[in-house]
Design a protein that fits this description.
This protein is mainly α and 284 residues long. The chain has one domain. Helices cover 74% and strands 2% of the residues. The protein contains 10 helices and 2 strands. Strands 1-2 form a two-stranded antiparallel sheet. Helix 1 runs parallel beside helix 7, helix 5 runs antiparallel to helix 9 and helix 8 packs parallel to helix 10. The chain is globular and about 65 Å long. The termini are close together. The relative contact order is 0.15. The model has no long low-confidence stretch (mean pLDDT 92).
Length: 284
């Protein structure tokens, strides 16, 4: 955090310039999501708007795109950025199964999942084999595919935005403020897809702010934007693609399931608090 007042003012100007450009770029796609069909076509475009906004901001400020932290960094942080979101996703659904908010999918459900993924017809596969192959494919190829869009978000949010915030805020301030902005940026998608808007707004904000603390930690520790890219992609794949198909829904408990579910909010909040305390202890 810089102490020089002119530099702090300049940092805030850069921050608000970036956010203004993000809003201008994403607004047409937000409109399209809410009003046009099919809406998912526009989500990939939206996810690259933060990167484009960062590039435009750098250009306006006379700074080079190469000034972003493009280095791959220590493999330790790449591995942890895969492991942590996979872990909190698994913990979430294990708790859902244990407390009866959903059940482990039966053979028929897993076979149907295999059909959707194109795994039926390549030989005689039992449900266990289908589940294992699906998890491996989604956990590798699926993550690489997801990273193509999460890269756009993370160039903007973790590659550029949090480093500007770090000039004027503490680690806690950076993580919380960037989390609020990041969550609010998703509001049209939440409105469009939510079944209970108020509840899912609350749980989603808890999840995103908690993730922001974890991702800021790994970004600053690694001095690279790539751990955030991997983290974001793995989180999306496990919580959207892998774990829901392995879960049978129980009547009356739908608000506990999914990426906007109560259980996921609880688990990510615990993880977020752990990494917040860890960052403070390490004087990050």
């Amino acid at each position: 955090m810089v102490e020089n007042l002119p530099e702090r003012k300049e940092a805030w100007k850069t921050i608000f310039l970036f956010l203004t450009i993000v809003i201008v770029l994403t607004s047409p796609f937000h409109y399209a999501i809410i009003n046009l069909y099919p809406s998912r076509i526009y989500i990939g475009a939206i996810m690259w708007c933060p990167a484009i906004a960062a590039f435009i901001t750098l250009k306006i400020k006379g700074r080079k795109i190469s000034s972003l932290n493009w280095i791959w960094g220590d493999w330790k942080y790449i591995r942890l950025s895969y492991f942590i979101p996979a872990l909190y996703g698994i913990v979430t659904y294990v708790l859902i199964w244990i407390f009866g908010f959903g059940g482990l999918a039966n053979g028929e459900a897993i076979t149907d999942w295999g059909k959707e993924l194109g795994l039926i017809g390549i030989g005689t596969l039992n449900p266990t084999s289908i589940a294992i192959i699906a998890i491996i494919l989604l956990g590798t190829i699926g993550v690489i595919r997801a990273a193509a869009t999460t890269l756009g978000e993370e160039i903007g949010w973790r590659g550029f935005f949090i480093y500007e915030l770090r000039k004027v805020l503490s680690f806690t301030g950076v993580s919380f403020f960037s989390g609020i902005i990041w969550a609010a940026w998703h509001w049209p998608i939440l409105v469009y897809y939510s079944n209970n808007v108020l509840l899912e707004f609350i749980t989603f904000f808890i999840v995103i702010i908690s993730m922001s603390f974890i991702m800021s930690y790994y970004t600053f520790k690694s001095k690279s934007l790539w751990p955030a890219v991997i983290f974001h992609a793995v989180s999306n794949v496990y919580i959207q693609k892998i774990l829901p198909p392995l879960t049978m829904k129980t009547e009356g408990t739908k608000h506990w399931l999914g990426e906007n579910g109560i259980m996921f909010a609880i688990v990510t909040c615990v993880f977020g608090i752990y990494f917040w305390r860890k960052a403070i202890k390490e004087k990050l």
